[in-house]
Amino acid sequence: MTSRPFHHGNLRAVLLDQAEQTLRERGIDALSLRELARKAGVSHGAPRSHFVDRQSLLDALAERGFNRLAGEVEAVMASDAANYRQRLRAAAAAYVHFAVTDAALLDLMFTAKNGNPPEGLRAASGRLFAAVGDLIDQSIAAGELEPQDPHRLQLLFAAVMQGIASLVTSGRISAQDGDLLIDDAISLLVRT
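Structure tokens predicted for TetR/AcrR family transcriptional regulator:
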């Protein structure tokens, strides 16, 4: 009988890292707490101290994805870009890049949840939409976007960027063509 080593690091982070890798390589159906425990070298019950069930693992992955993407959009807002058009373009490129490189995670993030999602997941998704909303609000205030309902502009921005990412990930267009579509989309949104 082999003994499993005591995991003295941050097991939650290790499990989430492994879950992201599994999601990326093999899809959502391949995610199992038992398999993640085996890969981490801990008992099959150890993950339950961090994730009560598979859904809580999926929620934590989605939360992590929203926080990562929100951080990228917030970094664009803090950049030295000369105008909001450049910032919108950079935020759109970050969004599409994330969606292309982590398509399965993005799908998980925007999958409808039964009931109310946990507070952490709500906060993380709210952080992303607040960052995009702030950028849109500032662009409207600077006169670079037509004054409209900012919420509708946020949804339009997300829908267009997800659409472009979907075209790239499905192989219907190249990443280079996706980049050109981002330029076209920003040109349609921003006043010339």
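The two ends are 71 Å apart (CA to CA).
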